[in-house]
Design a protein that fits this description.
mainly alpha
Length: 497
């Protein structure tokens, strides 16, 4: 194995330059975070104007497939070629994809453009997290978690509002045109500030075969999870076939990891106890959060009779709680030796509240449910910065991109799996007209409300499944080693390697 190049103990950046660098990459992160929320409210308008409601769900699915599949590749490529060129490439692809989306004359063209956009968006969040890890030590990094959390908080609130405004008062294409000036600004700032970024990479070569196998395994699994119960029954040949093909690709990928001279994900990262447990904790925690954000609007409309816009407002406590919990946990983490205790208490709070919601879903008012969801997400939010910083704290600097990309990949994959599990629970109790082929999540709530279906008992099981998912997060967090946070950027070897 090649010896690492000499590493600087600290980056040659002033405090002002560090703040500017972080501001630039947070803008790039905002591009991806905003895109995940701004599209949903404009979906019905897009389907109507393009004259194709049947394939509307693919506007979301195409982006998620592409973004999830390439996330770990960006991490590895940034370890080979550096963060700056990789992040700039991701921004360019994302902006080109956004322009193609805005100009799309048909649903097929829009779906293909969304796939291209996802190829760029898949690297923005994980690369931004990696750049921050390059310029700030793990202990100091906790101070910036509030900024990271605020990006997701702002996008979760502003995205649906902007999407609805553009669709109703301007044109749906503006939800993509807005990415052009933001992307250009992110490119200019990132290009300028990242030139001074310290370089930690070794000489690597990308495992092309491993990358193709992992991408194929991810795409086929995501297709099965997105199709199951919505486009095709779970036991149908297309869904089972996709699961089988995915399993085959995953098996071939594992064999490739064992035989490749330099595998896509090095064994030292996969075998790292902190990386493994932190990834599991983040995977289930984020998965539950994503699942609740998708299905709680359906709950609010079907159980409490809210309109779509009011259901979005009722979701704000869930979003705000996560941001608040992440900010609080990140701020406190640097000041305590046993920094796992707060997220462990937070997850226990989430499990207790979700269990309460599962036990008495009929006896709580709308205000009480929203308040309890806010408290639950407050506890959930405490685990997100801790897992990210612990994983980055446990690997060598030249492996930072690979480790961060791997964590984000499994977080997204976990989200897809838990959303599919929630979907199986909800769809099993719906009338046939609400589960036909081509029904998207954006159309599901209105169909449920029109059919007059009572989903109170159904969501009892959704809340119970959420509590189970959070229990896995708690167990992984308990098992994860609590290593001291480094006060310097570079380490010669991984602790416990």
């Amino acid at each position: 194995m090649d010896q690492p190049a000499p590493l600087p103990a600290q980056p040659s950046l002033t405090h002002a330059e560090i703040r500017t660098t972080i501001g630039g990459v947070l803008l790039a992160m905002l591009l991806a975070a905003l895109d995940q929320t701004i599209v949903a409210t404009a979906m019905p308008t897009i389907g109507h104007e393009l004259g194709d409601m049947e394939h509307l769900s693919w506007v979301v699915t195409a982006y998620l497939l592409a973004a999830t599949a390439v996330t770990p590749l960006y991490g590895k490529i940034s370890d080979i070629h550096g963060r700056r060129v990789t992040l700039l490439f991701a921004i360019v692809i994302f902006v080109i994809g956004s322009i193609a989306c805005a100009l799309a004359p048909s649903m097929l063209a829009l779906i293909l453009a969304r796939g291209l956009q996802g190829l760029g968006g898949g690297g923005l969040i994980s690369l931004a997290q990696t750049v921050i890890a390059d310029v700030v030590s793990p202990r100091e990094r906790t101070r910036y978690q509030a900024h990271i959390a605020s990006v997701f908080g702002a996008s979760s609130v502003a995205g649906p509002v902007l999407g609805g405004f553009f669709a109703d008062h301007l044109h749906w294409s503006f939800i993509f045109w807005i990415n052009v000036p933001l992307g250009l600004l992110a490119f200019i700032i990132s290009n300028r500030v990242l030139k001074k970024l310290p370089r930690y990479e070794r000489r690597h070569k990308l495992d092309i075969l491993g990358a193709l196998l992992m991408t194929s395994a991810s795409i086929t699994l995501m297709l099965a999870l997105n199709w199951g119960g919505v486009r095709f029954p779970w036991g149908s040949a297309p869904v089972l076939g996709m699961f089988g093909v995915s399993a085959l690709f995953w098996l071939m990928f594992v064999l490739r990891l064992r035989s490749a001279p330099e595998p896509l994900i090095p064994g030292v990262i996969l075998s790292n106890q902190v990386v493994a447990m932190g990834t599991i904790a983040a995977c289930f925690g984020m998965g539950v959060f994503i699942g609740l954000t998708i299905y709680m609007p359906i709950y609010f409309q079907a159980v409490h009779g809210l309109s779509a816009s009011h259901a979005g407002l009722a979701l704000i406590p869930l979003m705000a709680g996560t941001v608040t919990g992440a900010t609080l946990s990140g701020r406190i983490m640097a000041h305590f030796r046993h920094y796992k205790r707060l997220p462990m208490l937070g997850i226990c709070l989430s499990i207790s509240i979700l269990s309460l919601l599962a036990y008495m879903p009929k006896d709580l008012s709308l205000v009480q449910v929203s308040f309890l969801l806010g408290l639950s997400s407050l506890g959930l939010g405490t685990v997100l910065p801790v897992t990210t910083i612990c994983i980055q704290n446990a690997v060598m600097q030249h492996q930072m991109g690979t480790a961060t990309g791997t964590m984000n990949f499994f977080r997204q994959l976990g989200g897809a799996m838990i959303v599919a599990a929630f979907g199986a629970i909800v769809l099993s109790s719906l009338p046939p007209e609400a589960t036909g082929a081509g029904v998207s999540m954006e159309m599901l709530a209105s169909l449920v409300k029109a059919a007059g279906a009572d989903l109170t008992d159904t969501f009892r099981w959704v809340f119970a499944a959420s509590a189970c998912g959070m229990s896995v997060t708690l167990l992984a967090l308990i098992v994860m080693q609590e290593r001291p946070l480094r006060t310097e950027l570079s380490i010669d070897r991984v602790a416990g390697e």
